[in-house]
């Protein structure tokens, strides 16, 4: 068996749909506007910080270093002259020098580790100088020169850092001028993109609404057609079932046993078809429900009856149809089980080439569940099989089974049989699965639970009842 989709179901829409990147234009517009608002503000804040470091830390620190140098030089002059202590300039006093040194420490702390390192060296030499006897000896002179050298090195570093900050301020000022010039056109483009995206979105919304209305009309038309066709088919089937029942009851005369058996099979097939049409009518209604009537049944007997009902079809196509179905008690809806098995077996016969084989068997209990054992009925054929990637696709509505060349099937199928079968199987608390058969072909398995479902399934569109 092969699967080919209904051509109508794969019809490409002539209307373009929104791509996965529909959000990109809006995101670009929002990003451009955010940058236009944030970048100038961030640049201004950075300029203010750099200027603050330049003025407060850099320039102030250099002034304080120069004051310390002047204070130190004044102390040297005082110590080597006959000036009285009260005549020493204010900036050369020890108190003023200590105050300048404290301010310098605070300013340097904002300029980074290198400036802090140079200041620590200067501060250490200054303390060492205060403890020196200042006797104009060679060590004393060397200490003075080292102190001046340390102060000059710190001043050079501060000058270099000030120049770097001035350059950074000029660079940031250029960025502050260029940024609006660049981002303003970007913002205009972003606004245009937003307007274009809005128009496109409205267009897509109109298209989607139009397609939704068309889909609703198509669904309503399909449901009306389904109701009309099933109603027109159900009436002659009912009449045929009535005539078959008259013949079976002997109303028109005695019937030989062999012919009576054939009439009974015809009657069962008509009832199965009528049951399927009734389900289709319920499903075609918006508020339709499927009625499930649980009866203590013999699954083996149901399987054997369905196989016998299709033996004539198999013989006509040259198919070997056999069954292995021992007596198996189960509580289920026999009409729905018969409907599912009839659909699967007829499909297997239809798509198995002449000389092939279709085998129906009851599979050993798979596992135990809260509703009893899970029992399977396997229908295995020797046809062409179905590709594994399409194993789930065959259970979708309006998917049709094709031959090995991918052409449409030769049985005028409508692609509903397996979809309805799976729905019925799940409403019965089980499922229907597909696997590849050994040596080719397909193996469909109907899984059922051995006991009835609880009434809570009424919420899922199924009416349950129990009969003894």
* Helical residues, percent: 55-70%
β-sheet strand percentage: 5-15%
First-last Cα distance: 40 Å
Number of helices: 9
CATH top level of the largest domain is Alpha Beta
Looking at this structure, what is the CATH superfamily of the largest domain? Histidine kinase-like ATPase, C-terminal domain
Oligomer: single chain
Order of helices and strands: EHHHHHEHHEEHEEEEHEEE
Question: How does CATH name the architecture of the largest domain?
Answer: 2-Layer Sandwich
| Poorly predicted sequence stretches spanning 5 or more consecutive residues | 1-18, 403-412, 454-463
CATH topology of the largest domain: Heat Shock Protein 90
Mean of residue pLDDT? 76
What does this structure look like?
With 468 residues, the protein is α+β, with helices and mostly antiparallel strands. The protein folds into two domains: 24-197, Up-down Bundle (Four Helix Bundle (Hemerythrin (Met), subunit A)), CATH 1.20.120; 290-467, 2-Layer Sandwich (Heat Shock Protein 90), CATH 3.30.565.10. Helix content is 59%, strand content 14%. It has nine helices and eleven strands. The protein has helices at 24-79, 94-108, 113-130, 138-248, 257-284, 299-309, 311-317, 334-350, 417-427, and strands at 2-5, 290-298, 320-324, 329-332, 357-363, 368-369, 372-381, 399-402, 431-436, 442-449, 462-467. Strands 3, 5, 6, 7, 9 and 10 form a six-stranded mixed sheet that branches. Strands 4-2-11 form a three-stranded mixed sheet. A two-stranded antiparallel sheet has the order 1-8. α8 packs antiparallel against α9. It starts with a strand and ends with a strand. Mean pLDDT is 76; it is low at 1-18, 403-412 and 454-463.
């Amino acid at each position: 068996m092969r699967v080919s989709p209904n051509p109508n179901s794969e019809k490409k829409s002539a209307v373009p749909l929104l791509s996965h990147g529909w959000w990109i234009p809006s995101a670009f517009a929002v990003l451009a506007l955010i940058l236009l608002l944030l970048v100038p503000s961030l640049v201004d804040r950075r300029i203010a910080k750099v200027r603050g470091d330049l003025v407060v830390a850099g320039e102030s620190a250099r002034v304080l270093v120069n004051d310390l140098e002047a204070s130190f030089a004044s102390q040297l002059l005082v110590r080597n002259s006959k000036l009285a202590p009260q005549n020493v300039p204010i900036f050369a006093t020890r108190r003023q020098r200590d105050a300048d040194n404290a301010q310098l420490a605070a300013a340097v702390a904002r300029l980074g580790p290198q400036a802090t390192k140079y200041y620590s060296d200067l501060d250490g030499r200054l303390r060492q100088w205060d403890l020196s006897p200042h006797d104009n000896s060679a060590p004393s002179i060397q200490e003075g020169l080292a102190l001046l050298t340390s102060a000059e090195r710190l001043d050079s570093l501060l000058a270099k850092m000030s120049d770097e900050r001035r350059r950074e301020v000029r660079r940031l000022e250029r960025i502050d001028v260029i940024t609006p010039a660049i981002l303003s056109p970007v913002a205009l483009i972003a606004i245009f993109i937003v307007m274009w995206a809005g128009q496109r979105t409205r267009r897509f919304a109109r298209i989607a609404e139009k397609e939704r209305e068309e889909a609703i009309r198509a669904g309503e038309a399909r449901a009306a057609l389904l109701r009309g066709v099933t109603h027109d088919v159900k009436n002659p089937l009912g009449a045929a079932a009535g005539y078959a029942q008259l013949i079976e009851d002997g109303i028109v005369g005695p019937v030989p046993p062999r012919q009576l058996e054939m009439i009974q099979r015809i009657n069962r097939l008509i009832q199965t078809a009528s049951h399927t049409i009734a389900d289709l009518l319920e499903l075609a209604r918006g508020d339709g429900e499927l009625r499930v009537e649980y009866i203590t049944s013999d699954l083996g007997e149901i399987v054997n009856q369905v196989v016998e009902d299709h033996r004539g079809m198999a013989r006509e196509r040259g198919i070997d149809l056999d069954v292995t179905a021992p007596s198996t008690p189960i509580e289920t809806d026999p009409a729905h089980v018969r409907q599912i098995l009839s659909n699967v077996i007829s499909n297997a016969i239809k798509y198995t080439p002449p000389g092939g084989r279709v085998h129906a068997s009851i599979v050993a209990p798979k596992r135990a569940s809260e509703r009893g054992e899970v029992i399977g009925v396997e229908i295995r054929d020797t046809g062409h099989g179905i590709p594994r990637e399409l194993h789930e696709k065959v259970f979708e509505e309006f998917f049709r089974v094709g031959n090995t060349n991918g052409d449409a099937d030769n049985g005028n199928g409508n692609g509903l049989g397996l979809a309805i079968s799976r729905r019925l199987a799940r409403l019965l608390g089980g499922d229907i699965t597909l696997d590849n058969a050994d040596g080719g072909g397909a193996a469909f398995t109907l899984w059922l639970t051995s006991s009835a479902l609880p009434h809570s399934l009424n919420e899922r569109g199924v009416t349950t009842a129990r009969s003894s």
